[in-house]
Write a structure and sequence with these properties.
Layout lengths: L13 E12 L9 E7 L29 H4 L1 E4 H10 L4 E5 L7 H13 L3 E6 L14 E5 L10 H4 L2 H12 L3 E7 L5 H11 L4 E5 L4 H17 L3 E2 L3 H6 L6
Parallel strand pairs: 2-4, 4-5, 5-6, 6-7, 7-8, 8-9
Antiparallel strand pairs: 1-2, 1-3
Helix pairs in contact: 2-3
Bound molecules: iron/sulfur cluster.
Length: about 250
Amino acid sequence: MRAHINETARHSHSLWVSERFGPTFQGEGPSAGRQAVFVRLLSCNLDCGRGEGAAWSCDTPYTWDWDRFDRKAEGRRVPVRDLVSWILDRRVELMVITGGEPLLQQRRLVDLVVQVLAEGRRVEIETNGTVVPLSDLCRANVTFNVSPKLSASGVATSRRVVDEPLRVFGRLARAGGAVFKFVVTCQAELDEVARLVDAHALAPVWIMPAGTDADVVLRRARELAEPVLARGWHLTPRLHTLLWGDARGR
Ligand code: SF4
């Protein structure tokens, strides 16, 4: 069961938040190693790891899996103005909005993003690439880290690969506003990435080893390094996992 996210005007000045933390390091993608503050939003429209044949599981099930977690304990509605002042109090250039799937609340996210940008900050929004982003979010100094899921997620293809959002993100990427990041467990999955990349003209591509413990991430990164180089793609660590394992709030 997933959270019901109310996008009505009555709640237009608050967001359903799972957790906020930082300064810490952005652990993934082109900004890996940069200082950042994180706002993690509640709810997701996918359920990675639950389907048959899944090779890895979502590392933030507490944002959406209400069979295993208590929604009331895991999330609360936070006024946008509180989030803005919390972010600005932390003197860090980069704000990362993550989830869950943050674009499920995107109408209410616009306010937060606009106010943070106005203070000279930079924003990254992490998304699974299944929701078309509002044009109001596609601004200078906003980058979408788009992570389409592979069959190893155990999610049906029709739910995890959606043409229209991928087309929009592909166009954004060509203008420098998006990158694509694929969670991979082994070298064999790179062919599936290549098929998706070719079918939807996705670039630039970052490959990220799946795993919530440092030994697994490092072993997979070593296995993937040469094949990723050979395909002309980039490799990202999960820096937070290498440093802190699966600790929350890092
Ligand atoms: S899309 Fe991301 S947050 Fe949603 S279930 Fe998959 S891994 Fe978890």
